[in-house]
Structures are given as C-alpha cells and as structure tokens.
Write a structure and sequence with these properties.
Elements (H helix, E strand, L loop, with lengths): L1 H11 L4 H20 L1 H5 L2 H5 L4 E10 L5 E12 L5 E7 L5 H17 L5 E7 L8 H15 L8 E4 L6 H15 L19 H20 L7 E4 L4 H12 L3 E6 L3 E4 L6 H10 L7 H4 L4 E4 L11 E3 L9 H9 L4 E3 L8 H9 L3 E3 L1 H4 L2 H15 L5 H25 L6 H19 L4
Parallel strand pairs: 3-4, 3-5, 6-7, 6-10, 10-11, 11-12
Antiparallel strand pairs: 1-2, 2-4, 7-8, 8-9
The structure holds NADPH dihydro-nicotinamide-adenine-dinucleotide phosphate and (2Z)-2-iminopentanedioic acid.
Amino acid sequence: MVKAILAQVKKRNPGEPEFHQAVEEVLESIAPVLDKYPEYKATKIAERIVEPERQIIFRVPWMDDKGQIHVQRGMRIEFNSAIGPYKGGLRFHPSVYPGIIKFLGFEQIFKNALTGLAMGGGKGGSDFDPKGKSDNEVMRFCQSFMGELARHIGPNTDVPAGDIGVGGREIGFMYGMYRKIRNEFTGVLTGKGLDWGGSLVRTEATGYGLVYFLLEMLKDAGKNIKGATVVSSGSGNVSIYAMQKCQQLGAKVIACSDSNGYIVDMNGINVKTVQQLKEVERKRIKEYIKHHPDAKYHEGCNGIWNVKCDIALPNATQNEIDEKSAQKLVDNGCYAVAEGANMPSTPEAVKIFLKNKVSFGPAKAANAGGVATSGLEMAQNSQRLSWTFEETDKHLEKIMKNIYASAKKASEEYGKPGNLVVGANIAGFEKVARAMYAQGLI
Ligand code: NDP
Ligand code: 2IT
C-alpha cells in the first residue's frame, strides 16, 4: 500500500528526487502504524499527508547596485496545518526549486509535531544567492520577496523563519517590509532581532539543541562527550553553535567546512574566529588558516568525512554524507552521528550507520531545537514578554530530552529498539494523524 502512495507521489511530483527520498523514508517507517490503525487507512491519512495543502510560487524581481534587473523565483509550500499554523524556514540558495522546498516542508510536519508545540509544517525560499551581494541588494531582494509573501502569511496562519542563506539580516529586511505592508507589529516571523520581538537562544537553538539530543544518545550508548573528537560540517548558524556547545561540554572539535572546502585544526577549532569570518565578514572558511597557521585547509567539502572522529555532526546540507563517506566514518571508529542539517545522510549512508550500531540521531528529531525555540518565540510574542536566556535554554533542553524519549519509545513499541529514524517518524506521524482524523476530511 505504501508503495502505491509513493508511486503516486513520484507521478505527481516528477523530477523531484529529494522530495521522493523524504517521503519514501517516512512511508516505510509508518507502514506498521497504518496496519495498526485501519481507520487511518480508510480515511487516507497517508495519501493526504504527502500532498501539500497549498503551494505558492511567485515572481521576485529586484535591481542590483548597477541598475541591472534580475528575476528570481519565490515559493512557500504550506504543507500541513492540522496541529497549528504552518511553520518552517525560508531558504535562499541557487539550488532551491520545488523539490527541495517540498522535502523540507514535508519533514517539517513531523519535526514540528515532535517538539510538542502547536506548529504545522511549511517551508519556503528562493533561488536567490545572497553570497557576494551587498546589504542593499539583499535588502531590495528581501523587500520584493516579502511584497508577495506578505499576503499569504500571518502570526496565526504561517510563520516563516531562517534556513540556509536566511539569517538575522534577511529576517530583519523581510520583517520591516511585512510591517509596512500590513501596518501591524506581530510575531509573523521568528529569528527576529532581540530589540523587536526576537527570543534569546533562537540564534544558538539548533546547534545547542542538537548537542542536547546528542547527550541523550551518548548516555544510552554509555559514552561521554568530554574528551571526544568532533567533526561538524558547514560553518553557518547550525554548525557554529553546535561547535560552541560541544566545546563548552569538553569535546574537541577538529574540523568544519563551507561549500568550497574544509579546515582541520588539531588544536581545536577556534569558534570565535569562525564566527568573525562567517557571521561578520561573510568570508570563506579558507581564511581561517591565516589566523591559525597550524590549521590545514583542504579544497572540496566532502573530504571532511575522511577526518577521523568519534562524533560526526553533518550541519551543512542535504545528502552530504553518501555511502562511501558513511563507511569511512565507521571504519575510522566514529560511534555517533547527529544530523543538524536536514536529510544530510543518503538512505544508503543511514543503512550503514544503523547496521554498524552507530548511535544515529535523524534530522527531524535531532535538529528540532531551532523550530522549537521559534515556537517559544511565538509564545513570548503572544504574551508580549521576553524570557531570560537561562529560562529559554532550559525549555529547549527539556524539549530535546522529550523528543529523544518519544522517538526511543516509539522505536521500542514498534519492535525496532534504538532505531530513532523509525521512532521519530512514527512519533511525529501519530500526533498529526490523530489530529487529521479528528478533524475530518479536509
Ligand atoms: P547557513 O546558511 O547559516 O550555513 C550553511 C552552511 O552550510 C554554510 O557553511 C554553507 O557553506 C554550507 N552549505 C550550504 N549549502 C551547501 C552545499 N550545497 N554544499 C556544501 N555546503 C553547503 O545555514 P544553516 O546553518 O542555518 O543551515 C544548515 C543546515 O541546517 C541546513 O540543512 C538547514 O536546513 C538545517 N537547519 C537549520 C535550522 C536553522 O534554524 N537555521 C534549523 C534546523 C535545520 P557556504 O557558505 O559555502 O554556502
Ligand atoms: O529546518 C528547520 O527546522 C528550520 N530551518 C527552522 C524553522 C523555524 O521555523 O524555526
């Protein structure tokens, strides 16, 4: 039965392999749930959940500093709102097309359900590349993008946030435009600046949450993060704060990357330097070796998985760990992998990790700390209050522990103890399925 649903997804969404990949994994996991609850089969919950509730695609024209006009494509896929307003990030990257946004929006449904907060799933973005653009160019693009998006979103309808290529700067420009168009100050975006409705810890949340989840995995495996060597791919928002938290807990982070290459620093990556280079100066990671001459730079980003480590944190992008890289990690003694990026391991790589008893934290569960803290930002906006760093961080930690516990419990209930891929998919699905069933044929 799930085979037929997948076939239909492929037929309806041709040429979108990332979306097919994400759907296939979830359908495989939830097949026993559909067997257990015939009412879900009868009401076609699975067939409905793989079809977005709404897909918006729009033109985004903008002018560069030389007066040249460019036309980008913008989109927002409102996937599922059974348990709350659509919620999920915006990605600005030249590789963005509907297949990427659909895979992300689909995964977001289950991730958001796992957080225990009332958030549905959605995702959006554009093929705009912020790299190498001036602040004014980025602003003009963001304003044009929001000029259209504003009519589709709202604090109780759809609440976008950041993702690859969208950070505090872009959220600021988009928020300003939304406020102007709608003439209202509401929590319509998360990841806002601290002076205008943002939440403490949101910047750190995905990386910190990832490490809180990792700690639960390590505890069950009888391992300790203290003294462990860590490799964290990427050098953006997720990677930076995952590295920072690992170091605070006594791990040694020895490598990180960007899309051009990776650096290895056996003295331990200096996260302050990475922050300065990437968050402030927007430079390439290669520049790191100018500041730390003992470190080595290697061209090409995939080689990072050849660096021997105890713990691997793929924090860059989808399908960055293939079968060969996974085998290399296993051969080098890596015993834990926690996914900060969305779908960074190919299905073949996941099989290798599970077969070799590597503790494996799938993205939906392990990186849910970002959106969970977005949920906390929405709660603070509704209250018109701001919580302290400590209070928010405690909430985040508790949410990550709960996610781990519910994924673990579901994996045991369905006879796959320790398989958190199956556990996370089932725990997320069951909550959304119950809501869809209760709300009738919508
Ligand atoms: P950023 O834009 O801050 O950083 C992305 C990093 O990944 C950069 O170092 C970038 O290198 C690298 N990267 C991006 N695309 C590629 C590619 N095609 N090949 C190799 N490297 C690449 O994004 P985030 O840190 O926010 O996002 C990283 C991952 O985490 C994504 O998968 C995202 O979906 C996921 N995520 C993010 C959350 C958030 O709250 N921000 C929450 C949950 C998941 P370069 O600078 O060279 O492009
Ligand atoms: O993939 C993700 O969960 C995010 N990019 C964060 C989404 C959000 O709404 O905070």
